[in-house]
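FW: tagging you since you asked about this chain on Friday. Here's the raw sequence from the shared folder, copied in full. Didn't touch anything.
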Amino acid sequence: MDDLKSKYLSLVADAADEAAIEDLRVQAVGKKGEISLKMRELGKMSPEERQVAGPALNALKDEINSALAAKKVALADAALDERLRSEWLDVTLPSRDRRVGSIHPISQVTEEVSAIFADMGFSVAEGPQIESDWYNFDALNIPGHHPARAEMDTFYTHRGADDDRPPHVLRTHTSPVQIRSMEANGAPIRIICPGRVYRADYDQTHTPMFNQVEGLAIDKDISMANLKWVLEEFFSAYFGARVKTRFRASHFPFTEPSAEVDIQCSWVDGQLKVGEGDGWLEVLGSGMVHPKVLQAAKIDPDLWQGFAFGVGIDRIAMLKYGIPDLRAFFDSDLRWLRHYGFSALKVPTLHGGL
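HL: got it, structure written out here
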């Protein structure tokens, strides 16, 4: 017993790593280890011999296991001490850069537009994206035979066979917000209505869902001259240069007279320059609010009049920031957003800058 004890305690003390410790455990107390084999011999001994040898072997086994465990802890402590001596961390170094999120160009431009119009006294109004036929078409003087009311142009919500509610659609413009705002607040009123709208169209310049902002101003002496001033002030602030506009006669059911609006521009080496040159680019539709629209919103057209306009937020974002394809707003990956996105710290001011 003493020989086994001296042998294994010496070997454990000289063990250089955990692998050597494991080998010694197998040799000493494993199933076929020396001490384990000795314990199997207890069955061949007489009761008197077992009474002496049994406790001695158990004590030897416990002592060897304790020595193995202590040596394993000592080796781990030594390895940790060595790492602490060889490795170090400079806590005075700056932290690693972490990629921060970006503001989507649509969100950024919506904030820019809202800030510019706020400086001109317009408040922001919002409304539901699922609208009734009345708010989306009838109240806006859009007749039943108008192409926009066909299912090939407009997304209608599903209706059961016994559903007698009026038809509902995904709004095709934010004009219903104008009707709801006039109903709720009356006149005078000066609002913009930004938000998502939906039309059954998809190509390089059209998507089934896009973003629009419409403006409305109602008072007793508003004219087309006021409309022209507001739009030129907006475009000049948005593009950061004095921008002239050109009005061309058009037709919209909800305005009379109606006008398409072009902005002054030029093309230089394939790049669009807004506010200079002798070219023109169509950007929005506008006009004086039709008397029937005022009547639908419970406003007396004999006392009040005003203008309305609508422009695609996606479109003017493309013009200002050089985004070539409208579809990229919806199907691009993070690399696109990191290129075209905006820092959350760059907040638009009321004067249109960043």
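FW: The chain has twelve helices and ten strands.
HL: agreed, and Residues 105-340 form a domain with the BirA Bifunctional Protein; domain 2 fold (CATH 3.30.930.10).
FW: great, closing this out.
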